[in-house]
Amino acid sequence: MKILLIMTAALTATAAFAQSQPAAPPRRSAPGAGPHAGLDMSETICRSQSVVGSRLTRNRVCVTRQQWLEQQRMDRLYTEKAQTNRIWPQ
């Protein structure tokens, strides 16, 4: 009986502590300030990319930050389109 009383008190204290912490409001950035706001979009960035079908060959690709972001956006759109246009077997 004593253990049950102690466990109940511990759970009540834990629940009260969890509710007493106010939730932090979500951060909002200034309008028009995206994650790349302070970056130079014309800066050339080089990345090493694997060649499909080879375990060892890698190509170095150098393009601007804006081109990398556009490629990332297009890859994401292509992936979303491929995932939503699947044909399910019946």
Layout of SSEs?
Elements: H1 2-20, E1 44-50, E2 58-64, H2 65-84
Antiparallel strand pairs: 1-2
Provide a compact summary of the structure.
The protein is α+β, with helices and mostly antiparallel strands and 90 residues long. The protein has helices at 2-20, 65-84; strands at 44-50, 58-64.
How would you portray this structure in words?
With 90 residues, the chain is an alpha+beta fold. The chain has a domain at 42-85. It contains 2 helices and 2 strands; from the N terminus they run αββα. A two-stranded antiparallel sheet has the order 1-2. Strand 1 and strand 2 form a beta hairpin.
List keywords for this structure.
2 helices, alpha+beta, 2 strands, two-stranded antiparallel sheet, 90 residues, elongated, 16% strand
Largest sheet: 2 strands, antiparallel
The helix/strand order is: HEEH
For the termini, the CA-CA separation is 58 Å
* Count of DSSP H/I helices: 2
Shape: elongated
Outline the low-pLDDT stretches: none
Helix content: 40-55%
Radius of gyration: 26 Å
Structural class: alpha+beta
Average pLDDT works out at 78
- Widest sheet: strand order? 1-2
Strand content: 15-25%
Extended strand count: 2
